[in-house]
Amino acid sequence: MSVVFQNSSGWVLDALPLINGSYQRCVRIGKGGSSLLKCSFKRQYFQTSKSYYCQSPTAALAGGKADVRSVILEGTKSLVASAQSRGYLNGDADAEKEALPAPECGLAALCEMAKELPPVDDEELKEHPQLLITDGSCTPNIDLFTQVTEHNSDCGAVVPLMGQEYVIPPHTAFLLSDFTRMKPLIDYEKKFDLIVMDPPWENKSVKRSRRYGSLPSSQLKRLPIPQFTSPNCLVVTWVTNRPSHLRFVCDELYPYWNVQVVAKWFWVKVTTLGQFVFPLDSQHKKPYETLVLGRYHPSAPPSTSEMKEVLLEDSRLIVSVPSALHSHKPSLSEVLKPYIRPGAECLELFARSLQPGWTSWGNEVLKFQHKKRFRALSSGSR
Description:
By secondary structure, the chain is of the alpha/beta class. The chain has nine helices and 19 strands.
């Protein structure tokens, strides 16, 4: 359970229990056979203890942002205090000092290399997804770029892929590709009740750091969202604090997909002591990001009575210690569970990790599944 505390303002999340719950029992597939492992995501990724906080952040935000500031300031204060009374966000006395591993081979670069391969004709594309593991071994000649891959086991798996080892959660499906090779996901023929996306928004810091490729906002309209959605699908988009990006999602992108904006939430990033990681009034980096939540309506806008049934609470907060890994967002599966049907089909776009029970797509979809991100304890051979 990753929800430490919940009230009318939102939730305090602890990311690690939700991640690690999927890897208590894993099978490691190797040339010499298979063995049982227990894997856990390394704690040091969630040990942000330093706050880059100005001594006296007094500059007020202008216009409508003043309301946002008040919501975040008061809501976070309440949530953090309640979490601390339960023994969370009081610092990490057992912080691990091990250095973080170096980045692994770039998946986005592999996707670019895959474009140089001969194109696959529609007739050659298999109608059904491929299984990650067959007969106790990793499927031979597995093609991660032009087929959806499924892992349907009840336990996780540590498997060799593209010369690296990756930790795969149970009951998951994924496609490693970019816009040019989305057809296998479209042909997957699943309709989803929840779609979460974290686009690689363009901004100056990304261009300077070159940590990942960015995407012009207008290109997001190429995503065939209506082909993925079930009626009343909940669509959630992570948005940076650049006002033009927020306006684009609310005024252009969602209307283009027939998605109606129903709420805006905020992910608030705090240290292990419950302090904002950046000044709330900073003109450069904010300690929060926005989520725009909308409902898909395939034809005419819903009536007033229908809107009452689908609206979510506005201005909710999700408070958590951020990962040290760039763009490693907290899972929304638990906080969104009350707003989707039981057994809902869930899709993450521009994913950099996998979740049990979800389908994930992106050109870095396995990035945070690399075995270097995990600790593994042997449980014996099979």
